Amino acid sequence: MQQQNIPEETTSFVGRAAELAQLTAALREQRLITLVGGAGVGKSRLALHALHTLHSLHKPPGKHVPQPRPGAAPREETGTLYWADLWPLRTDELLAATVADALGIFDHSPRIPLDALCGWVADRTVLLALDSCEHLVPYCCHLVGELLTACPNLTVLATSRQPLGAVREAVLPVPPLAPATEGVTLFRQRAEAVGRPLHALADRRLATQLCTRLDGVPLALELAAAQLRHHTLAETADRIRSGLDLPDDPGHLGPCDNPRRPARHSAVRTAVGWSHELCRPTERLLWARLTVFPAAFDAALAEQVCTGGPLTGDELRSALAGLVHKSVVTAEDGSYRLLDTIREYGRMWLRELGESHQVAARHAAAVVELSRKARAEWLGARQQTWYERMEELYHDVREALRFLLDSDPAAALELAGNVAFFWVCCGHLYETHHYLELALACTDGPSGARTQGLWTLGLARLLQGDHEAGHTFAELTRQAALATRDEEGLRQAAYLEGLAALFTGRPLAALAAADAALRDTRATPGPAFGSTLCRLVRVFALTGAGRLKEARREAETLREECVHLGEFWTRSYTDYQLALIALFENRAGAAGSHARDMLDAKRRIGDRFGIALGLELLATAWAQQGRPELAALAYGAGAQHWDMVGHPQRGTPEVAPLRDEGQARARTELGDTAYEALFRRALHADRDQVLAWATHPDPEPGL
Fold this sequence. Notes:
Blueprint lengths: L1 E3 L12 H13 L2 E5 L6 H15 L22 E6 L9 H8 L10 H9 L4 E6 L5 H14 L3 E7 L9 E4 L5 H15 L7 H13 L4 H9 L6 H10 L7 H4 L9 H16 L2 H10 L8 H8 L6 H13 L3 E4 L2 E4 L1 H14 L2 H21 L6 H10 L1 H14 L1 H17 L3 H14 L5 H16 L3 H18 L2 H17 L3 H14 L8 H16 L3 H18 L3 H16 L3 H18 L2 H17 L3 H18 L9 H16 L1 H12 L3 H8 L9
Organism: Streptomyces spirodelae
Protein name: Regulator
InterPro entries: P-loop_NTPase (IPR027417)
């Protein structure tokens, strides 16, 4: 089986043979399985290990195997595993969009995310894991019900502290580890990992007593083992035996509807609270403040948000290292995160300190500042870095927007406008549309942020296929820019107007809009965002109008400037145009070279829409070169990406005849059966493998 975005297993998996066998069997017989258990009991770990086991066995997740269409080649897809983290979500408003992101769906249609999900999964064989559903149970129940109804070959594995309550849900309880056997094994392994192996018989007896006291709950055992870095096993066991007078907050560390919790929840509270008590005061303060991060974070952002009072820069770095050593914070590849239960406990203490609003405001301010830098440095050598950074900060941006919409709508509008071009490129069109509409509705009066917001909302609507909205928002952007004498906004309005004209097959209108904007702003020194976009529209328009020599000359000039700047987005579209021009001029070799350059640039910034465009041009170049096997594979790869993107038009109108001609040529040379087999092989291949194959200078005629 293929797997996409499944987290790695970073520690050993202990025990659970019976539960794993039961889950594996259920995944072959049931379509919805929910692993249910208390906080820290290991639901996510069991689900993750089961998925890795399935992947290693290369077996499909369910018995619902789709049949090929009559006359088509046999289906080669064996199923794909996906993992969606739901714990960063505070509310349900972007639940479906979050799951779509996990499946790699970069929908460019006006559909709501749930419809896009159902349309993309359709009859694919998919196993989808939804991790941490407990705070969104009714919404997850509805989402899963809709998906299972519409997608006959979908299997869902959920983890939650309570069942979803869905029809035909198979609920598998996840108990703690057996304290005297599996629990001790886990504790001994983790103790050895921190440099305190348990060799003596007395130590093993103490370990058994401790594991029994902690009820075999894995999170409690992990936290207890982490304390061996600083305390002896005897001290640790004494501490656990004595218990602690811990704050009891039923709404946080146990099931929401059960204040009389079983003993294992007391074990978690004891271990988490004990870890908290053993922290230095500054470590406790940092623990509380770190709960503002909805997902993973890096040390620089933590320092920017969490310093203050006794937490100086040096002390914060020391405290962060201490929390990592105590297993309160997990660290991997330069990033950090808090487990759900530990975050909940820290949030309780943040409320007790009275700092919740203050820390959230600092977090939002830090995100806004980063977004300003990203926008200012978009047209330059740090562009790729900022695309990666904005994707890393995706959950932080959403959290900051949620906070600012209530506390500072003007700042929310600025933030949404700053990140929107990055989000649009990376396929977050629904989120862009959602937050910009909210922010625009909460603000009024002319401002640069409002101009930017109107422009980007129009761009999102246009890329979702609403061409009329492109014209409407171009005019709204122009009016807003005139009100503030914003020349950059005027150029962006012209770009939006020109792009709308290009999508509707009116290249001369696009050329007129771009020329008017560039004629009025030629004196502007150096490259600028709006003028660069207008120059790109001009290249597209010249190509669409058949003025190929002019288009090639201007595209080559613009490309050279982009190479000098170290910029990729504009450069990739100049390569797209140069490939298209070469195809019109029957220079298939040059077209293929430019298409590969475009794909490499789009890969760097995560632009799946651009990748889909580039794959089809590359396929057409190979078809013109008499390489039908490669063409069929590339057309299949392009179809795979168009499925993810969901764009109704697949580029500007002049591309369609070239695509149709290339597909017909490759199909004629190969025959229908051979063409379909190659096409379907690429259609269901691993996305990254396909892209690596396509960008190779001399790819093999296979995947």
